[in-house]
Predict the structure.
Amino acid sequence: MSQDIAVVVEHLGGKIADVAFEMLGKGRELAKATGGRLLALAAGQGLAGLVKELGAADAVLLCQGAGLEPYTPDAHQKAFAAAVKARAPRVTLVANTTMGMDLGAGLAAELGWPLVAYCRDARLEGGTLVATSQIYGGKLLAEAQVAGEHAIVSMLAGSSPAEAGRATGAPAVEEIAAPAAGPQRVRFKRLIQPAAGDVDITREGVLVSVGRGIQSKDNIPVVEELAQALGGTVSASRPIVDQGWLPKTRQVGKSGMTVKPRLYVAVGISGAPEHLEGMRGAELIVAVNTDANAPIFNVAHYGVVGDLFEVLPLLTEKIKSSA
Amino acid sequence: MDIVVPIKMVPDLVEELEIDAEGRDLDRSFLKLRLSEWDEQALEEALLLKDKHGARVTVIALDTGDPDETLFTCLAKGADRAIKLTGGEAAQGSSRATADVLAKALKGIPHDLILTGVQAVDDRDGQVAVFLAEALGLPHVSVVSGVEPAGGKAVVARQEYAGGVMAELEVDLPCVLGIQAARESPRYAPVSKVRQAMKTLKLEEVAAAAPEARAGSTVRRLAKPEAGGRAEILEGSPEEVADKLLAILKDKGLVRS
Amino acid sequence: MPDAITPAREVFRNLGTPAVALFYLLGALAILIFCWGAWARIRKYRRGRPSPRLRLAGARLLHGLTAIASHSTLRKRNASTGLAHFAIFWGFVVLFIGTVIIMIDYDMVRLVNPAWRFWRGAFYLWYSLALDVMGVAFLVGLAVMMARRWGARPGALDYTRPDREPDAYSRRGYLRDDALFAWLLFLIGVTGYLVEGARIAADRPPFETWSLVGWQLANAFDALGLSRSSANGLHWWSWWGHAVLALGFVAYIPYSKAVHILVDLVNLLVHDEASGRRLPAPVEGGTSAGYATLTDFTWKELLDLDACTKCGRCHVACPARAAGAPLSPRDLILGLREHAEDRLGGLSLLRETRVAADGGDALIGPVIRPETLWACTMCLACVEACPVGIEHVPLIVQLRRKLVEDGTMDPRLQETLQHLDRYGNSFGQSERNRAKWTQGLPFKIKDARKDEVEYLWFVGDYASYDPRVQEVSRAVARVLQRAGVDFGILYEAERNAGNDVRRVGEEGLFEKLAEHNMKTLATCRFKAILTTDPHSYNTLKNEYPAFGLDKPVVHYSELLADLLRSGRLAVAKPAGAAVTYHDPCYLGRYNGVFDAPREVLGRIGARLTEMGRCRDNSFCCGAGGGRIWMDDSGLQERPSVNRIREAAGLESVQYFVVACPKDVTMYEDAVKTSGQEGRIVVRDLVELVEEAI
């Protein structure tokens, strides 16, 4: 058993995910507390090029093999289990992404270690790991003490600054043998990209985002007009995209895009954690919702508890007439 | 194909959640419980597979949280069997323990495909879908939003990633899939059908095995998020509010003055 | 030949025995064809489920007969058309009785004992006069109707369907049927006079001056120089013409629009006054909760389909149709009728032709689209307007029950039903918050669950949870408190009464809500239920007795009227405002409460100007039937906007007074969207009362 901190590094198409840098930053913090090393773990094929970006880590463990590219839950879990078991780190960090959901619980079960999920914070008090999870749709925070010598912590995207984990460097690289190629129980078939030709909302400076409060597809022009007046674009929460009222490329949130515009106006969006994950980094957040208790008001800078059908047209008009 | 859908009851977030006197758990006296919404999606996906390809759908739940009406509702929607695991209090509050109990029960129930919600609002110690798969030694995929049979021995699952990207993965049966969303929104169960089910059908009851004892994490404090993050609420008539917003936007240079 | 002194007439004058035999043969043939057609129709109706409607007790029978005789349903709001039809109806009846009298006298009495023949003398004179006068009424009535139909071309008679594309159907068959019917009757009438005039011109019996028209017609023939032999010739031809047309008409009745003569008589007699107000329970032991095929209909409902004369009154009255929704009550009935012709036996000769492929027995889909059924606001204007007693609303509910069972509904509606099941209110809010609106009051309202009260106030969803309507609820509480009324509420134990849940077709949920409410009420002690919500009022009053409610139900306008009348509420500052009052569908049209709110307005000194569509012709705001829980973005103009325009058209009216919570939200919204802010303000009745006391 060691005092090392392990971080699972997610990557897609040769690019390291932002959230992985968040984990590295957090990992460094924990490593300082335990006095152990920070280990970055990655699995796939042709990963050598990524190593220089992982300067925040003390060592990079790579598990490479044809069966590990692209990502599939089963093969990756076996690869990481081998790596983690060998190093027996004190804490293993994964992000609360799809991959993190596959791996966090998978590794915890395979290795027999406890898992704490949806964490906003994790720290060491003396030798005890204390992790705070966001539960019940973000309505409550549960601060928990983790028993045992090893633990897996799954952290919410946006819970740590990515800058703390970004550093170029030349950490020591170790190749971990890929597990014996047995029959692949989960086989990759193809990747489906969202329909191209539409706006890239991650590049927009102003987003006016629409949620279920809009009630009907035919009311969306109210939001479009405001977006137009502000020189921005319309984005949406998941339910709107699921209904087919806007294309998937407009979806903000866990399964959609993460955006950091200068202005994010959340219209009729209640603020489920999956959505907040995608936009809480925006510079200025304004929320309009009829429900004073909507969680969106916990991340917004300014809030209006009112009817969007009354406020938006007025605001649009005022912006237009002031120009 | 035999599809099993484990479901569970969770606190309804419409209600104000109160913390109990000791500050470590919810005050359960005013709690209203409802079927976990991801489990509802899983059931819908199972029923869609049944409608399209013919399958037997079995719903299974621990008896904590009074799942009877929910189980009958599942039968009214078209599930073929509903099983209640009695004496499951020991597993309440822990996904890991719940998965243990389910795994032991599933040894006696035919299962080609297990569909359950990818997460729940109270699965702080991890996701049941994955724990269940590992306990049964089955492959698992999380965050799935569409399942199609691929020959008799496998299914194709659509796994969702960030940015609207998805992957199609072929998974050997039997397997466990953590469902994020069904292909269509969950169907309606007319109240008369549910009441009819309650009158004419019976829930199967199986004694729940005891979960494994294992070290985990214990909640030492439950609290509401700080009010520090609250937005500044702009008061007034819609006209006044619009004026205030315009002023803020101008101030930040987002609207030309 | 009768002797010149005793007034009488020779039957079959100038016709030889072969001709008479031919006539009787044709008559028998006509009657056979008629009987076969009538029997086939009855057989069709018998394919439906039984219904206790035929048990006509004395009072109901009398009521029905009076309605038919006076044509009250036809003359309602359509004085000239109603009067024209009254003339046609009574003209036809009298002329028909006239023929029957001849038949009895000639074919029966004469064969038994010629001395008993009665069609002579004074009787014959009055007979001749009556028939001549009624014949004119008959023809004038027909002329008026034909001029209206083909000259004025009113919108009600436009057969364009709002629920199909124009090229998917053709109603030329209907137009031909209409023309055939009108002209056939007209020609029968005209030839009748020709026969009479020719006979009188030829024979000139002196007593025939009693045949006012016939005598003058004979004079006209004389003036034209008609010789006696020509007159006989005219008589012969017009007699055969009249005979063939008349017998042809008799045979034709069951195969055409003319069948309404028989069907509507029965339909009006078996009409249920509580139709729509108290909905039928679901079909016992059926495979589905609602109607899936025609054989699920009762015989009365199948009769309804044939009763329609395409008068278009329901079509014009329907707020959904006016808003541009794909619903016309008329076309709902006609669509089902055509389907019944296809599947249960076609009899009508002139029909609508449709392009769509045959969809089998299923009603929903090929025959009636789900959007059509969901567009209905359950306002009952169609049933109220129908002069022949067709009951569209219960049919729509039965079909909606099938839609609910299949889960074919607006996602918002589905969500609302789930909210109602889980939380007992349509807002999806915790039931614990139901009485939060009382927190703004300076006193505590009695808890009817614990204390005995005189009036148990059933508040309702909108009045409890909608912020704007909560203000009205507080006003009601303050006014009742001022008047010293002993009242209480059920606090968190109250659930939605279920009126609109039932009308949406979710019968199981309605039962569940009603059972829950009754369980609560059973533990309470009260004298009467008071409600501010007409929807709750309707179901509590008409449908909850089946669940055991045996206390009176009072609307707050009725109580306010009482309080003002008795002086328990004294008017200190008379309102003086110019107002118009909107009759809520469920209070007015459904339950006949028109005068109480008007009395209240009068007593507080408001000056009332009525809108054109008022009282039982009030125009729905569009929220009923669950529509407020559905997406209405497909409408061209919301009914509420239509109504506000009507009100704004009344000069000087400042206040639009309502007495229903949903009306408050619907009309305030309509005032904003139609840009009438400042021109007209929506006020609840109690708000004006509070200002005045």
Summary: The first strand of chain B starts at residue 2 and ends at 7. The interface with chain C takes residues 12, 14-16, 30, 32, 34, 185, 187-188, 190-195 of chain B (CB under 8 Å). The longest helix of chain B spans residues 37-53.
